[in-house]
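Q: I have 88 residues here and want to know how they pack in 3D. Can you give me a structure?
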Amino acid sequence: MFYHPNAYIPSIINKSPGLEKRTKILNILAERRINLKNLQQKTGIKTSTLNYHLKLLEKHGIVRRRRIGKGVVIEELGMGQRTIKEYF
């Protein structure tokens, strides 16, 4: 399985299920910003699990939540941690 380069979070133990979920999230966010409800529907990830992974990705500067009008959207920042290749 190919994981998105930014799905790897250096401060935690990365296991396949988490990497797969973050890859799903990041692949969708690479296309466009999206609200939490639609992201949950597209990924099929439980809302609590989705929030957990979004918080990790936010903490590392990979995604952010932004208020637009009365709603909140999640967007990829296009920056954040370096890819794994840069460490080797």
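Q: Anything worth noting?
A: Residues 16-31 form the longest helix (16 residues). The helical segments are 16-31, 36-43, 47-59.
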